[in-house]
Design a protein that fits this description.
- The chain is of the alpha+beta class.
- The protein has one domain (about 5-155).
- Helix content is about 25%, strand content about 20%.
- It is built from 3 helices and 7 strands.
- It is globular, with a radius of gyration of 20 Å.
- The model has no long low-confidence stretch (mean pLDDT about 85).
Length: about 160
């Protein structure tokens, strides 16, 4: 599969500009049954989110919110996926050519942005971790996790 660079200009709270770049795989080139089988990743139901917020407000519970910024980059891939070299990494290709390999590609070990199964892989990984530290899934919503000490977590 191909890939491309995604560039973004961000402004720090102090007003300084910083530039970010990331590699995004062209997931639309993936073939169902070859590169992936399933892409579903559960998301917390809006009804449950509203209920949890109102329940916490009525009982004066502490509410916290977190954003897992690089969540889709951490899970290991469950199939073999190969990607072409991104633009600007010609030095790697020329090094490979010295060894006699003219077609230089990369085998992904972890997910990248744009990979169709990345959200499902992340949800499987976080599900296993949360259950290992004492959370269990709600029967009403598989994105709602409950721990015996009263901690509720909605993904």
């Amino acid at each position: 599969m191909g890939c491309r660079w995604a560039y973004k200009t961000k402004r720090n709270p102090n007003g300084r500009i910083r530039y970010k770049a990331r590699i995004v795989i062209k997931g639309y080139e993936q073939i169902h049954g070859v590169d992936f089988d399933e892409i579903y990743a559960s998301v917390g139901k809006l009804f449950n989110q509203r209920y949890l917020l109102s329940f916490a407000a009525q009982n004066n519970y502490k509410i916290d919110h977190r954003d897992v910024v690089t969540a889709l980059l951490h899970p290991e891939i469950d199939t073999e996926i190969y990607m072409q070299l991104p633009e600007g990494i010609e030095w790697l290709e020329s090094t490979a050519m010295l060894g006699g390999n003219l077609d230089c590609i990369l085998r992904l070990s972890n997910a990248l942005y744009g990979l169709r199964q990345a959200p499902r892989l992340w949800h499987q990984e976080i599900d296993g971790f949360l259950q290992s530290i004492g959370f269990h899934r709600s029967r009403a919503d598989i994105s709602l996790y409950i721990r015996n000490d009263g901690v509720l977590l909605l993904l």
